[in-house]
Amino acid sequence: MWSLLPSLLLSACGTAPAADPAPPPNLILVSIDTLRADRLGAFGNPNGLSPNLDRFAAEGARFTQAYSQAVITAPSHASFFTSRYPVEEVGSGRAPALGPDKPLLAEVLKIYGYQTAAFVGGGDLNPAMKLNVGFDQYNSPEDFASLWRSAPAALQWIDKRDHTKPFFTFIHGYDTHVHYLKPTPFGYLYGDLGYQGPGQLAVRTGTERLVHGKLLNDTSPLDIVHSSYLRNYSEEAVADLQARIGRSRRPAQSTNTDDIEFVRKIYDGAVSYADAQLGLLMVGLAERGLLENTAVMVLGDHGEQLGEYGYFNHCCGTHDEESHVPLILRLPDRMSEVPRGVVHTGLVELVDVMPTLLELAGAAPPGEARGRSLMPAARGEDWKGRDYAFTTGNDRMRSVSARGPKGRLTYTGVYAYAAIVPDLIEAASLTGPGFDAQPADLDLVEKAKMRTALVTWLRSLEPAPRQAPEELPPALREALRARGYWDVQ
């Protein structure tokens, strides 16, 4: 039984009650925006940042090698609401190009009699992004809101729903998104409040201004984006930019390893803040007796660079740091025949979310779904997973990436919409500048395998037709820019 602190920090409870085949389970999907997998104890972190999420994982099935299909919020959510890849659903700009023949998760569940409601943190999930289709209620009261706001609103809706029908509730918050600094006591839970380095200024004004060891101060991020040197954020590009525009602005401050570590600790405080919100949500569900017949899935929609490649954000690459996410499924307590604490180490993708939840609902996935149900793994069956997982950058990143069991291969230069991209990747030299490997010393034979997988995958897709990007509402556009989305039109 989930209960109030401190007992919600304890390990998992005993075996659940006996299974009952009916009625269909309620479904709750929780998206913690920008949450890296490697920050959770259940995924190997030894620092005790996430007691509630760790307990949640101990009561369910965790997928330790789950990867997002995009590294920004809107296309990532579109991928698991449609079970299709972003290159197939994003015509241009930020909003998914969703058509009536590509039903979203909530639309399918409505056909099967589910009540549907979403409680989101706005921003890239603002209704302007078109991901509200299929929800009876779509609550997005402000941009970049926390689970602290969305989870209680979801519980209130659950209390008022029609109790004769199953429900699907989507809950989302930007708790680990920039800006990382969270309310007391979480903001400086691990970082020193009295720290005097540039890292302190960065967490208070915007970590997206930290680029290759320089805190850009008055230099607007838009100056960087709109410069001709955007593409790889190289140290030379930043130095040249500062030389050209820095004369009329405050010079950049140099940072050191202490600053980087300080900012990471502030991010870790945000992780614990998000973890506390998840714990309170689980308490609310337990107090209502809902865990008996409710499946809860928790995921990160993408990760975050924390200085590993010179910046803090999720704008500029498809590395593991930005694409490796937690994915955990807790099945209803009545499914007592299902083992608890399952750990699946095979590769899975977020496009697998939709088929998984639909199988639980007894519903069939759309014919064009790219994902596969994770239920065999959740039931503890010998289920391999995927050979490769794929991630794409946005328009300005112009990158596409394959993740295999031994590493990652990324091709950068032309965005995946272009029909010529598979031919370019196939013909390019693996030792040339177009490819980036992670780890850097990845075996050439392994790179060749991943290139073949990448080409085969791209040729299997139906890229969305290019279209003019829709104009975002001015207030939303400014909110996105203030949060480090420098590429907003």
Question: What does this protein look like?
Answer:
With 489 residues, the protein is of the alpha/beta class. It has 2 domains: 7-180 and 266-389, 3-Layer(aba) Sandwich (Alkaline Phosphatase, subunit A), CATH 3.40.720.10; 198-260, no CATH class. Helices cover 30% and strands 16% of the residues. Strands 1, 2, 3, 4, 5, 9, 12, 13 and 14 form a 9-stranded mixed β-sheet that branches. It has a 4-stranded antiparallel β-sheet with strand order 15-16-17-18, with helices on one face. Helix 5 (147-160) packs parallel to helix 9 and helix 6 packs across helix 9 (257-287). The longest helix has 31 residues, at 257-287. The termini are far apart.
Structure, briefly:
The protein has helices spanning 51-58, 73-82, 86-89, 105-111, 147-160, 198-205, 221-225, 235-245, 257-287, 320-323, 353-361, 375-378, 421-427, 444-459, 474-482; strands at residues 26-32, 61-67, 115-119, 137-139, 167-173, 210-211, 214-215, 253-254, 294-299, 305-306, 312-313, 324-325, 327-330, 342-349, 389-392, 399-404, 407-412, 435-438. The chain is an alpha/beta fold. It has two domains: 7-180 and 266-389, 3-Layer(aba) Sandwich (Alkaline Phosphatase, subunit A), CATH 3.40.720; 198-260, no CATH class.
CATH architecture of the largest domain: 3-Layer(aba) Sandwich
CATH topology of the largest domain: Alkaline Phosphatase, subunit A
CATH homologous superfamily caption of the largest domain: Alkaline Phosphatase, subunit A
Number of domains: 2
Q: Could you name the CATH class of the largest domain?
A: Alpha Beta
* DSSP strand count: 18
Strand content: 15-25%
Unreliable parts: 4-20, 221-232
Query: What share of the residues lie within helices?
Result: 25-40%
Anisotropy-based shape: globular
- DSSP helix count? 15
Radius of gyration: 22 Å
Q: Terminal Cα separation, in Å?
A: 48 Å
Based on helices, strands and strand pairing, what is the structural class? alpha/beta
Query: How many strands, what sense, and barrel or not for the largest sheet?
Result: 9 strands, mixed
Mean pLDDT: 87
